[in-house]
Amino acid sequence: MTTELYILTLAALLQVVQFVLMAIPANLQLGTKTTAGPRDEPLPLSGVAGRLKRAMDNHFEGLILFTIAVVVVTLADQSSPVTEWCAHAYLVARILYIPAYAQGLAPWRSVIWMVGFIATLIMLIAALI
């Protein structure tokens, strides 16, 4: 398994952790009857629960592009120290993003997000070179 695939697996597990981190305060805030309901309307989460939900959703979005980058690097046999470093940077950024978003740390939340995004972009460019 390449380093990039290993990091992708850890990033997927991080998504599971984020779900649990969001679900606990969401259930405490809204009650299990609401959270187990049909969700015809979006759940009205606020405060930390709402921020954790948005951070989780943001990771889903970032994980899509990161997955593409890892697959392209792996299938093109373009793994290198640069792409490995970028994969690590992406994962560290995503881990730091959770508490930064939950605590509302502006502008650090955006700076941390940008690190992960740029790392993913570099991986995609590296696959083409």
From TrEMBL:
Q: Name one Pfam family in it.
A: MAPEG
Entry annotated with the keyword tRNA processing: no
What's the superkingdom here? Bacteria
Subcellular location(s): the record lists:
Membrane
What residues form the membrane-spanning segments? 6-24, 60-76, 111-128
* Keyword entries, A-Z: Membrane, Transmembrane, Transmembrane helix
Which GO cellular component terms are attached? Answer: membrane
Q: Is Endoplasmic reticulum given among the entry's keywords?
A: no
Q: What is its main location?
A: membrane
User: What's this protein's name?
Assistant: Membrane protein
Give the organism, scientific name: Litoreibacter roseus
